[in-house]
């Protein structure tokens, strides 16, 4: 029990009057919770007892420890017993918010307890100090009004005792708070905070919500339909919009953006309850999408220090259509999540394997990781690029030390050096995996010591073996959506500055050339796919016709080489005979031309174009030429027709123009003819070899007439000469 050493008596009337005077000049430190109803009663009425206990235990682990000469209040080391219902996510979020707010005002709240004589005038056990200071923050945030308790709430004895103590000292506590505010010349204790902390709170209040679509359970189109049924409209940007809207992220096609004030409404929608939409910081989605762009269908991924299992699930969802396996290490989440397998089953994730070892203890030549081609490294860092640390801790399972750093506006130099060394060791170890081809390094830090400096140091001191290709810095694989992003990524690092719309993010991609000895043939890829059942019964044992023909040509190559000499000699003799015959035929044709009877003009034109025939003509209209050309060589004709032509021999071709007759359609009027008959005729050309047989060709005069037809002539003048009749 709490016993007061000097009990002070106040009448209820005096207490009410003095409290109202202090409250009239006091503004709550929480920018979000200062909203009052129209009746003047504060909207906040307090938390359940279990939230106070959970918040006290959180504060016990993140409080700022002071030197022995500056200690005002002693805190115990024993946590308070909590109720089973404290595991509820909503209660945990409330407890973290209360603990973080108490941490920011720790100095002011301790001063109030000393100035009001609660310490050391009362005998308070040390293990209750955290509970007292947490409840004091909420007490002043409620303007020192009595907490309203629900009828069905289960009370906790320690909480009831502390609340009675604070109520008995509420006048002195209000006076101590007013003196502190006057001392710092501030309208409220919120303005006593450092400027960097106030800016952080302002960004946290406006930061939009990011959620990725679990495509293993629902398609994006179905998500849009569900949201529109709930009254949400799709827009291009959600900034400064108070309506129920959403937008698709520019960098990640499966990420949706919502205004921050819709969180309470969204968590009650079925698609969020059923793990079809998952809230998560955008930086984690950027990391997994970068990995997705670097892997093939059958490449495995190794994820290190992912923090949240939602990041692992997102990577699994993006590779659900592949044969990839997701290995996870560096997380001691087995104790925190006993129902982890059940969670993955609900989300539809089937290709995840958890490694029990820490990352630096894994052998780079481990046989389990021989197919790992990309390593995603999300090292523990200062995370000062995070605007809303509560959501980040709950979703990413980050260390609560983040709250301590953010409450002070920065990370100490000693801690920063320790973190940077740990990050370098992990990145250097990732670069030792022989089979890996890329490493994705992602942080939420704003310090170059944790970002560029770590990457450059790892590249500089990497082990370059004789058979291992060195890593090099590669440009971002994510789309750059603005000139600012292009400017920030000019040195091949992807950066997103901390703003009112996004948390800060740093992303680097290290790649190296594939080992030439690891080149995989198409046959090996097909065989591997068939072994995994991806070819749906396609048989690979039967060779294609092209492969059989190629093998046959390869096996018959020695036989062909045996008769090479004979074949070459025959070709030479045949060529000489053909040349002699061509010269003889030319001379005889010139002599015979004057003795032949007069031929039609078309035949004359055709005969004049035949100069060195490679074989006797078969045209019955020129019997004399055929007879003279074949005299004394009865077998030459047969030999020329059966001789195969070599593949690589160039055959001279001569263009021949053929005029096709115009189409005459029976239309009743000239208008119908003009509308149907084209004004221009098309000439089709064909190319015949030099050894072709001459045929009947149109005369040049006819060709010229058809080449320039007259237009707009009457139907009687559309007739053309028809030499084919």
Automatic annotation (TrEMBL):
InterPro entries, A to Z: MeTrfase_RsmB-F_NOP2_cat (IPR049560), MeTrfase_RsmB-F_NOP2_dom (IPR001678), NSUN7 (IPR042620), SAM-dependent_MTases_sf (IPR029063)
Keywords attached to this entry: Methyltransferase, RNA-binding, S-adenosyl-L-methionine, Transferase
Biased composition (Polar residues): 555-564
Segments of skewed composition (Basic and acidic residues): 633-643
Positions of region (Disordered): 541-564, 604-643
BP term (GO), one: methylation
Claim: S-adenosyl-L-methionine is one of the keywords in the record: yes
Pfam family membership, one: Methyltr_RsmB-F
Gene3D superfamilies: Sun protein, domain 3 (3.30.70.1170), Vaccinia Virus protein VP39 (3.40.50.150)
Bias kind Basic residues: ranges: 543-554
Keyword S-adenosyl-L-methionine: yes
SUPFAM superfamilies to which the protein is assigned, alphabetical: S-adenosyl-L-methionine-dependent methyltransferases
Segments forming domain SAM-dependent MTase RsmB/NOP-type: 199-513
Domain of life (superkingdom): Eukaryota
GO MF annotations, alphabetized: methyltransferase activity; RNA binding
Catalytic residues (positions): 444 (nucleophile)
Recorded family membership: Belongs to the class I-like SAM-binding methyltransferase superfamily. RsmB/NOP family.
Full protein name: 28S rRNA (Cytosine-C(5))-methyltransferase
Organism field: Sciurus carolinensis
């Amino acid at each position: 029990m709490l016993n007061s050493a000097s009990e002070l008596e106040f009448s209820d009337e005096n207490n009410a009057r003095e409290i109202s005077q202090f409250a009239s000049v006091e503004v709550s430190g929480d920018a979000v919770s200062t909203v009052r109803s129209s009746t003047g009663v504060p909207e906040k009425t307090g938390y359940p007892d279990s939230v106070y206990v959970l918040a006290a235990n959180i504060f016990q682990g993140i409080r700022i420890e002071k030197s022995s000469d500056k200690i005002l209040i002693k805190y115990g080391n024993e946590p308070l017993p909590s109720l089973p219902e404290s595991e509820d996510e909503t209660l945990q979020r409330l407890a973290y918010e209360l603990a973080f707010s108490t941490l920011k005002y720790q100095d002011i709240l301790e001063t109030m307890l000393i100035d009001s004589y609660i310490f050391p005038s009362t005998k308070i056990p040390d293990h209750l100090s955290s509970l007292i200071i947490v409840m004091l923050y909420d007490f002043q945030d409620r303007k020192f009004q009595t907490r309203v308790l629900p009828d069905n709430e289960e009370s906790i004895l320690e909480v009831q005792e502390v609340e009675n103590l604070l109520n008995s000292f509420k006048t002195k506590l209000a006076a101590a708070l007013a003196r502190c505010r006057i001392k710092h010349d501030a309208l409220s204790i919120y303005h006593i905070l450092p400027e960097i902390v106030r800016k952080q709170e302002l960004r946290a209040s406006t930061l939009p919500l990011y959620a990725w679509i679990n495509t293993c359970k629902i398609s994006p189109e179905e998500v849009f339909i569900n949201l529109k049924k709930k009254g949400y409209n799709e827009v291009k940007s959600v900034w400064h919009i108070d309506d129920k809207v959403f937008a698709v992220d520019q960098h990640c096609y499966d990420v949706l953006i919502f205004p921050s004030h819709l969180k309470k409404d969204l968590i009650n929608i079925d698609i969020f309850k059923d793990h079809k939409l998952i809230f998560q910081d955008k930086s984690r989605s950027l990391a997994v999408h970068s990995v997705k762009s670097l892997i093939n269908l059958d490449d495995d991924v190794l994820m290190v220090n992912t923090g949240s299992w939602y990041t692992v699930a997102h990577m699994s969802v993006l590779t659900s259509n592949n044969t990839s396996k997701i290995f996870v290490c560096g997380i001691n989440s087995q104790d925190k999540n006993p129902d982890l397998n059940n969670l993955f089953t609900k989300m539809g994730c089937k290709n995840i394997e958890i490694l029990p070892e820490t990352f630096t203890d894994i052998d780079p030549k481990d046989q389990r990781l021989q197919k790992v081609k990309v390593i995603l490294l999300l090292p523990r860092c200062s995370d000062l690029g995070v605007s809303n640390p509560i959501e980040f801790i709950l979703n990413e399972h980050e260390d609560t030390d983040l709250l301590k750093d953010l409450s002070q506006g920065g990370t100490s130099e000693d801690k920063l050096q320790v973190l940077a060394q740990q990050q370098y060791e992990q990145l250097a170890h990732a670069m030792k995996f022989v089979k890996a081809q890329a490493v994705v390094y992602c942080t939420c830090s704003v310090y170059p010591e944790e970002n560029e400096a770590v990457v450059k140091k790892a590249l500089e001191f990497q082990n370059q073996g004789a058979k291992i290709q060195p890593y090099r810095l590669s440009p971002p694989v994510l789309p750059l959506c603005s000139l600012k992003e292009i400017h920030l990524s000019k040195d091949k690092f992807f950066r997103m500055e901390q703003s009112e719309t996004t948390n800060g993010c740093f992303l680097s991609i290290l790649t190296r050339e594939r080992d030439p000895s690891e080149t995989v043939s198409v046959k090996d890829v097909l065989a591997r796919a068939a072994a995994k059942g991806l070819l749906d019964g396609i048989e690979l044992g039967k060779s294609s016709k092209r492969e059989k023909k190629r093998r046959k040509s390869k096996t018959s190559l020695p036989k062909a080489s045996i008769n090479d000499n004979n074949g070459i000699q025959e070709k030479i003799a045949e060529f000489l005979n053909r040349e002699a015959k061509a010269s003889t035929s030319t001379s005889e044709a010139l002599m015979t031309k004057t003795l032949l009877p007069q031929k039609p003009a078309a035949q004359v034109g055709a005969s004049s174009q035949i100069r060195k025939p490679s074989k006797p003509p078969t045209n019955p209209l020129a019997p004399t030429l055929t007879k003279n050309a074949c005299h004394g060589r009865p077998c030459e004709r047969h030999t020329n027709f059966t001789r195969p032509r070599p593949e690589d021999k160039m055959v001279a071709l001569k263009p021949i123009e053929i005029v096709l007759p115009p189409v005459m359609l029976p239309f009743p009027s000239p208008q119908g003819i003009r509308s149907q008959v084209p004004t221009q005729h098309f000439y089709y050309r064909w190319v015949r070899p030099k050894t072709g047989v001459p045929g009947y060709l149109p005369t040049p005069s006819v060709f010229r007439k058809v080449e320039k037809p007259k237009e707009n002539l009457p139907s009687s003048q559309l007739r053309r000469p028809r030499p084919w009749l």
